[in-house]
Amino acid sequence: MLFDIEVKISLKRGMLNPEATTIERSLDLLGYKVKNVKTDEIIKFQMEGEDREVIRSNVTDMCERLLCNPVIHDYKINVIPQNMACGK
Amino acid sequence: MLFDIEVKISLKRGMLNPEATTIERSLDLLGYKVKNVKTDEIIKFQMEGEDREVIRSNVTDMCERLLCNPVIHDYKINVIPQNMACGK
């Protein structure tokens, strides 16, 4: 069975985010007043497997080993069996 | 009224995504077989305003002028009035 995987990676609370700071300052220079800018990254992919929990545990390993830096990042994993995906 | 804004930026279909290619290859080297890797970016911020449609049009301007490159990026804008946000 094919699974759609979505990993949402964000910086842990309190980590400096220079990208967000730059966006906020640049928008301000253009005349837009915004606050609390945050940036997240989403990595989506597909994986073959039989069991949702096995997939989830594999993806957790991927996050810890490659996709995230567990020291500074939080991540959320979403595993959706292909036939349950919406809008397809 | 305070609005929560979420801008989801993805590459247009057909654009090369070296980051995704690298992720796919690296996961393969670690023994994980995944396919169709895609990456998106989410920029979240807050903005004061009275009218949801005015906010949305401002954010569209921000996207065209600063946040995205309209030549290579697609973007989706989500405007949520603060008191309607879930989980707060």
Automatic annotation (TrEMBL), chains A, B:
It is an enzyme of class 6 (ligase). GO terms for biological process: 'de novo' IMP biosynthetic process. It catalyses: N(2)-formyl-N(1)-(5-phospho-beta-D-ribosyl)glycinamide + L-glutamine + ATP + H2O = 2-formamido-N(1)-(5-O-phospho-beta-D-ribosyl)acetamidine + L-glutamate + ADP + phosphate + H(+). It holds the Pfam family PurS. InterPro entries: PurS, PurS-like_sf. Keywords: ATP-binding, Cytoplasm, Ligase, Nucleotide-binding, Purine biosynthesis. GO terms for molecular function: ATP binding; phosphoribosylformylglycinamidine synthase activity. One of its GO terms (cellular component) is cytoplasm. Its EC number is 6.3.5.3. Pathway: Purine metabolism; IMP biosynthesis via de novo pathway; 5-amino-1-(5-phospho-D-ribosyl)imidazole from N(2)-formyl-N(1)-(5-phospho-D-ribosyl)glycinamide: step 1/2. Gene3D superfamilies: Phosphoribosylformylglycinamidine synthase subunit PurS. It is found in: Cytoplasm. Part of the FGAM synthase complex composed of 1 PurL, 1 PurQ and 2 PurS subunits. Belongs to the PurS family. PANTHER family: PHOSPHORIBOSYLFORMYLGLYCINAMIDINE SYNTHASE SUBUNIT PURS. Part of the phosphoribosylformylglycinamidine synthase complex involved in the purines biosynthetic pathway. Catalyzes the ATP-dependent conversion of formylglycinamide ribonucleotide (FGAR) and glutamine to yield formylglycinamidine ribonucleotide (FGAM) and glutamate. The FGAM synthase complex is composed of three subunits. PurQ produces an ammonia molecule by converting glutamine to glutamate. PurL transfers the ammonia molecule to FGAR to form FGAM in an ATP-dependent manner. This is Phosphoribosylformylglycinamidine synthase subunit PurS. The gene is purS.
